[in-house]
Description:
alpha/beta, 12% strand, 49% helix
Amino acid sequence: MISATTPLHIGIVGCSAEGAALCYKTICVEGALLLGPHAHPEVSMHTASLADYVRCLERGDMQGIAGLMLASAHKLARAGADFLVCPDNTIHQALPLVAPASPLPWLHIAEVVAAEAQRRGFRRLGLLGTRWLVDSDVYPEKLTARGLQYVRPTAAERDDSNHIIMDELVRGIFKPGSVARYQRVIQRLKEDEGCDAVVLGCTEIPLVIDDSNADLPTLDSTRLLARAALRRAVGTS
């Protein structure tokens, strides 16, 4: 247990409700492991309408996404946050545009996941997430920098994953059939592609897939980001 100075104030730039809620809950619940019963760092969250983000994603408008993220960043800075996290993998595409103009520093979700993959000795990772995320360089850039290989699902698998996330998971809809489809993709990534772990690169996927029901070890981007934020807040990273 860590005592001493007051932990830093964590700012959460939310995007989808389910992912942001899981990140917030993890910080609050697991904060007690570091700080004592019922204790956690101060947390503030701001979330623009998910519809605004989706409109920008559909037209490939990274500047628009960056503007939404920066608007949240400035509001959280005024609320007293010391640093920021965004529990949404997809909109990290815009972070290179955000960081230079941000009033506060950010933790990068893919960097956190890549560091954990390296720590655990994984070498070849399957990527799961929205079509926008899997098509992007958000994870390839961070994984390659650490000497890690990655495999993107097929185009059809990406489209199916995008449907499950955007039409079901972000709305709090969890269907056994959709879980089974993810399980089949993970099995194929293991058997056909030689992956030794899979990145749950959408902050909602950990709500339905984890180590207990997947053929590969999972890297839960949501909880890993929350734990990294906790470590930063209490000064252990």
